[in-house]
Amino acid sequence: MPKNRIVKSFVPKSGRAEFVKPYRLIEEYDAFVLLEASPDEARRIAEAVPTEDITDQYTIHSGSDVIDTSTPAAVPSGEMRAHPAYKGVEPVDSRPHHYLVQFVGPIKKTWLPAIRKLGGEVRRPYADFTYVVRCDAAALRKIVGQPFVRWAGHLSHRNRLFSKVDAESGALPRSRYLPSVHRIEFFGEQDKSAGVKTLKGMGVKVLSAPKGTTIATVELSGTAAEQKKLLGEIAAVHGVAAVSNRNIKRPSNDVAATIMGPDADWLAGTGLTGAGETIAVCDTGLDTGQPNSIHDDFQGRIKVIKSYPITDDFDSYIRNPGGNDGAADLDSGHGTHVSGSVLGSGAASAALPGSAARIRGLAHKSRLVFQAVEQKLDWKKVSDKVKYGSYLLAGIPGDLKTLFSHAYANGARIHSNSWGGGDAGAYDAQCRQLDEFVWKKKDFCVLVAAGNDGTDKDFRAKVFACDRPGALRAGRHPDQPDCAFPTRPSRHSFDGNAYGDFWPKDYPVAPFKNDPIANDASQIAAFSSRGPTKDGRVKPDIVAPGTYILSTRSRMIASNNMGWAAYPPSRLYFYMGGTSMATPLVAGAVGVLREFLKKQVGYTKPSAALVKAALILGARKLPGYSPANVLLDNHQ
C-alpha cells in the first residue's frame, strides 16, 4: 500500500477549516497547513492550492543512518521501543543523555520554551525539524507526550564519530589530513571543560582547547586498531557532539571558471561601484602586507590587514609553533589575486598598451578588510613537507566566528572565502559556526568556494551530482579566458588547453579529456563540485567565472610564478583559475548589489538572505544540465 504523504499547503484562512476536513491536519500556521494524505489525495490538494510535498523531511539524517520517524523509538510511557536505526546498539540508562527530538513541522516559537519547562536542555538545531535535547528519562517521557513532538531517540555515539584512522582512504582526491589528529566538538563550553579532563584521564594527548570555543584538538597514538577503539570511546564521552579528522585547509584554486554578465558601459551607467561597502577577504596574504606600500590597485582603500599565527594543533609537527610571518603574499599570490577580483581598482592597468579598459573588480570603490591566514611551516619531518608543502592556511582559527567577528567589528558585511578542505558534503562544525554567526548578524553575507572535486576518474564520461561540495564551500563555471571583470583588455586565447592535458587522471576519456577548459561560456567546469550535500541540501547556490581569470599579482612571489599564465603587458597581473577565482567575483557582485539596495531601493540594512535571494533570482540558468521544468539543479 502506498505510503501516505505529508504536504505543506498554502490554504487561505478564509475557507481553511472546510478545506482540511477530509484530511488529517498535522499543524496549522499563519500562511499554510501541514496535512497527511494518501498519494491520490495529495495530488488533488496540489491541484487546488500551492502545495509542497515534504514527506522526505520526516527522516533524520544522522551519521550514516537515515532514521524513519514514522516508527517511534521513545513513547510517552517511557518505554524505548525497538527501532531499525538502533539495531545492535545498547539502550541508554535513565540518566541525562542527548536525544534527537523531531517536531511535527517547522518549529514554532512556543515549542522550545515548552521543552525547557518539561526539563529538557535544548542544545542545538540538528536538521529535519529536529533539535538535540539533553534530558533524563523522566523528562523524555513528558517531551514525547507533547502533541507538537513527532519522534525522539538517542543521538547514537556512532553517529557522532566522523573520524577515520586512515582519513585519506576513500577521501576526495585533493583532501589532506594531519595523521592521528582529530577535532572534538562539544555541545557547550562547560561540556568541553569537563570533557577535556575526561580525555586526559583516558590518556589522550590534547593539543589545543581554545577558551571561548567548543572545540578541542587531540592526537592519538598506538596501532590503527587501538586508535579506532579509542575514537569510539571518545565519541561516547558525555557532551561530545562530533569527532572528525583534522583536515588541512587549502586554497580552492587548482581548477577553473567563467565570464560574468555586467557589461562595462552598462554598469558604469548605473553609477554602482561598491562605494560605501566594506568587504572582508580571508586568504593567503595581500601583496606586501603593508597598507603604505600595497599594490596600486588597493591603495587608499585598506581598512585593516591582520595576520593570524599558526594554530596550536600543528605544534607537535613543526619547529616554529605559533609562527607568524606576517600578511605579505609570499608563495602563490592567491590572496592578492582574489582580492583584485573583488575590488581591485585597476589603477596599475590604466595606461597599459593595448588595454581598452582597466582590469578591475565590480566593487572597485569598496574598502577592504584582509585576514591573512597562510603561514610557512617548518616541518620536523621531511615527509610532511613533501606531502603538505611549506605554506599552508595554518592560521585559520578553530572557531570561524573569530574571523567573522573581527571582520564585522571593522565594518565588513561581506566575507569572501576561497578555500576549503572539510568532510565533503557534510554539515560540520565550521558550517555550524557560520550559521550561528549569521543567525545573530543577519546582515553579514558569507561566500565560500564550492571546491574543485568534480572528476571523471571512473570513466563515466560524466560528472555526476555526487562529487559533492565540501563542508565549507561556493560555486562557479568555466568560460572564455578573458578578464574576470566587467571590462575586457586584449584577449589571450587558451582554447588549446584541455582538461585531459592538465589533469589526465581526473579526465581520462572523452568528452572531458579533449574538451577545452575555457572556450564555452554556457558550460559548467568539469572540476566544479556538484551537489547535493550529504543531508540533501541543494548546492551550489550560484555559478560564476573561474578559469583563466585575470587579476592582480603579488609582487612578493617568485619572479617565475605566473599562476596559470602570464599577462604579457604587465607583471602586476596574471591569470589563475579555480573555484577560488569564482567566489570573489560573486563577492564583488554582492558589494554592488548591497550598494544598489541601500542607495536606490532604500534598505538601510539589507539582510544577507535578501542579498542571496536577489543574487540567485537575478542569475540565468545555464542550459543542458537539467530538464527545463526542473527548478533545482545540483550542477549550478
Description:
48% of the residues are buried. The protein is built from 14 helices and 26 strands. It is globular. Residues 253-261, 458-462 and 464-492 have low confidence and may be disordered. With 636 residues, it is of the alpha+beta class. The strands form eight sheets. Strands 17-18-16-21-23 form a five-stranded parallel sheet, with helices on both faces. A four-stranded antiparallel sheet has the order 2-3-1-4. A four-stranded antiparallel sheet has the order 8-9-7-10.
How would you briefly describe this protein structure?
This protein has helices at about 15-20, 40-50, 110-115, 135-145, 190-200, 225-235, 265-270, 335-345, 380-390, 400-410, 430-440, 500, 580-600, 610-615; strands at about 5-10, 25-30, 35, 50-55, 60, 65-70, 95-105, 120-125, 130-135, 150-155, 175-185, 205-210, 215-220, 240-245, 250, 280-285, 300-305, 365-370, 375, 390, 415, 420, 445-450, 550, 565, 575.
SSE order and pairing:
Blueprint: E1 5-9, H1 16-19, E2 24-28, E3 33-37, H2 39-48, E4 51-53, E5 59-62, E6 65-68, E7 97-103, H3 111-117, E8 121-127, E9 130-135, H4 137-144, E10 149-154, E11 177-186, H5 189-201, E12 205-208, E13 215-219, H6 224-235, E14 240-247, E15 250-251, H7 264-270, E16 278-283, E17 302-307, H8 334-343, E18 367-372, E19 375-376, H9 382-388, E20 391-392, H10 401-409, E21 414-417, E22 419-420, H11 429-440, E23 445-448, H12 499-502, E24 549-552, E25 565-566, E26 573-576, H13 579-601, H14 608-617
Parallel strand pairs: 16-18, 16-21, 17-18, 21-23
Antiparallel strand pairs: 1-3, 1-4, 2-3, 5-6, 7-9, 7-10, 8-9, 11-13, 11-14, 12-13, 15-22, 19-20, 24-26, 25-26
Helix pairs in contact: 8-13, 13-14
